[in-house]
Automatic annotation (TrEMBL):
This is G-protein coupled receptors family 1 profile domain-containing protein. The keyword Membrane applies. It comes from the Eukaryota. The keyword Transmembrane helix applies. The chain crosses the membrane at residues 21-43, 58-80, 92-110, 141-161, 182-201, 221-237. Keywords: Membrane, Transmembrane, Transmembrane helix. It comes from Adineta ricciae (Rotifer).
Amino acid sequence: MCLVSYILITRTQRQALHNHTILAILIFGLPIQFIDINFYLAFYHNGVVQPPTHSVCLLWWFTDLGFYTGGVILMAWLAIERHIIIFHDRWLSTRTGRLLFHYLPLVIFFPPCEDTYDYTLPVCNASPCYQSYGIFTMWELIVNGSIPIFLEGIASVGLIIRVQVQRRRLYQSAQWGKQRRMIIQLFLVSGLNMSFNLPIYFIPILRLCGLPPDCGVQAELYFFFLGYFVIFLFQFIPRQAHHTAIVIPLAMKTAPTNKAA
């Protein structure tokens, strides 16, 4: 919450394009911290959803499923966006380019439908109506979950390869200090996200490929709750990357002038 306030209040941080996706991820994490986790604690304390109403279940679904999955997608976009900011910054130099490549990918749509709830299970059984249709279940698992994580990993590895290939041009750039911080930030985010979320989506895919349904259930449960550490620890990564010392390349240093005696 403090980091969100800092970015919103500080004009330079608020206007920096590379902070917008970070800010969106932080905002998506707030309902999970303030609503989702508290609902879990109340459920395990009372043994039932309290109060047992449709509105509470919808709110819980919206935070537990919508905001968490949205955060995973935004982290994948963060990795792709770093390529655009560092190597194709001219795409963001116009209003149309910023709309297409920066703001529009942050828009997420939620289709309406009619649901049923079970107040004796966590997250009211977490079974939105769209999951009753096979294609939407596959879409949720693969397109909204697995693909963003794999894309994030590929984009992160691809970024370091591109940096190595074009390191001479980047090191001589006046923006290298800021770009270096963004690269460090991306790898911290990707490492954190993939460590906890990759098993959550990888195990169900293995079941679709023939793994017995009861295999990996215990591990999946552990990783499900460990996934909340992505939300808890993410807020420290932008600050850590911001305070990382900047090593100025030799080519950018200017020789000291000799002062007259």
